[in-house]
Amino acid sequence: MADSLLSSITTFHTTKIIVIDPSKYSFIGSIPIVVFACVSYASNVIQEYKKLPSSGPSELTPAMICSIEEANKPAKRGKKPKTQKEKKLKKLARRLILQSYSDSDSKYVPPGNKPTTPTESESKSSDEEASFRGDTPPRSPTLEVHVRSPVPSSPHVTIPISLPPTVKLSIQSLLGVAASNASRVTNSITKLEEAFAAKKQNFVHLRQYIQKDNVALLSSLNERLTKLQDDLTMENSLMD
Hints:
Layout: H1 2-14, H2 44-51, H3 62-72, H4 84-105, H5 120-133, H6 165-239
């Protein structure tokens, strides 16, 4: 590898290098050290190379300078001149468009309007069109009318689903558990309703008993109070 690298160095040094644009050539001088960095410093070729005088950049010849200036000149930009054939094609296309519109409008002619005679320019364009077409007959304009067809409604597709027996058994067991739970809930609700009704009835009876006892207590208190009042009046009369 060292020999091939050295041969490339000597070839690079001895071969004449032509630089087209010296301002864009970043390196001016001897070969950089990076090229022969992997070669040993004690090599004879390196020692001989270092003895060679450094050469500067090569000078450009007048022919080379002229070619560079011509290459750097901006290209002329402008509209491309239209040929006679392109003009005829444009006139023909315009004539066909006008003819299609006139054919579509010629079906209805309002009263009092007379068809106009073709002018000289139209006759010239028709002559040019005929000369351009030759013996081919004129094309009739075809009007394309897009009709939307109704989209047919797709029928409902039913897909049969077959369940394995294990899934069916599990579903049946779940349904049985749900039914038993529902019956238990309904039984507990009915029991709670019956217990609440019994408690309510007991509360009504207890309230009636308390009311009766209260009435009897009030009547006995009133009787005792009246008796005490009578005794007090008798004692007061005796004291007087």
